[in-house]
Task: structure prediction
Amino acid sequence: MKGTEALALALRRSADRCYAVPGYPVSGIAAATGAAITTNEKVALEYALGDSLAGRRAAVVVKHVGLNACADPLVHATAQGLRAGVVVIVGDDVRAVASDVTQDSRYYGEIAWAPVLEPDGEALAPAVEAAFEASEIFSRVAIIRVTPDLLDADVPETSAPRSDRTGSLADPGLTMAGRRQASDQRTRAMFAWSRSSPLNRFSGGTVGAGPAGGASRAVTVYPPPADPEALALTREIGRPFLCEHRLLVPPEPTGDPERFSSRGHCRTFCRDCPFHPVFAILRERRMQAICDAGCAILAMNPPYRVGIATYGLGSSVAVAATGTGVALTGDYALLHSGLNALIDVYECGLPLLCIVLANNRMGMTGGHPVPDILRYIAWADPVVCAADDVEALRRVLVPPRQGPCTVVVEGTCPEGAHHEILEYRDL
Result:
């Protein structure tokens, strides 16, 4: 069978859901897996992260330029964690056959501290399962890089038993700096994983990666899979990635990750924040939200702790649609990069309560003005409530049932106010 067919077969076995934005050279994979086609690649990865939070493995199929659109949630996931495995299949059009630019997507492994695998024909199915396992073991997205040379080649049919693991979200007691430190500790273990992977076959001579020939074989191409000497002479499709990264070492140990309890304080909303009633109702009803970057992210901290995860600006809508069902976003975050997801959610009819905190300002970036969000989402027929209308908020802030519902909560931030610094207690 062809590489495209073999890869699609492996994905159907190892993944519970698959999303894609087709394009050469991965259009065949998207079709053969029956992947759901999304508005853009970022939305696809966010849907996959939501599935992960709900315990479902998910794959995302994109071409190389599409991976660029995934960068924000891809990097955030490394520090914030996940549960079930998430794997991105990225097809690199290395000769610009049907693209306006070439790219070597393996470099995203270093940017996101994410495991990258580049299988040959004999390792396709085992590599797919290994990628899902690595995603779960290290609680981050894994990447499989393929090229037309592999997808168009005749390859043997292989299989690999599915072995689900369980990843984890970042400890809510860790500060954001602490979450990075904790993910660095897992990254060190990831280096050992690559060195010990049975997918790699080193027997001397030239090392091949992906479809490139060689007496030895490297499949876990990031982190470095062998001693620098063994990787000195490699054959690769694209840039000399393995040669450039053969001297790479894992992050240095930094001691225990920073916790709120050891730091002694945490940030929360301004004392006179108009949106306090929203967070209080969510907490009272034990509704778990996906938070956007911005002021909404403070809902993950005491005293409310209604947010369970965040994957970057504009990410809450799609992640929540396949995850907890409740998105907590700001008007700026929605305009920044959440609108594509909201369009897709409404097109698909997914159950989602999207709560938009509309204060007409960029609360985390200096208070710059934001256009009125209602003119851009009128098509969603949003429910509009005043932030101090508690009775109305109680009527509309309910768990989603059949389809999406957008609630715009309007409030005015007090001039000159600042986020509160609270003495931290492990509540």
The CA atoms of residues 184 and 252 lie 8 Å apart. The domain at 3-245 is CATH 3.40.50.970 (Rossmann fold). The two ends are 57 Å apart (CA to CA).
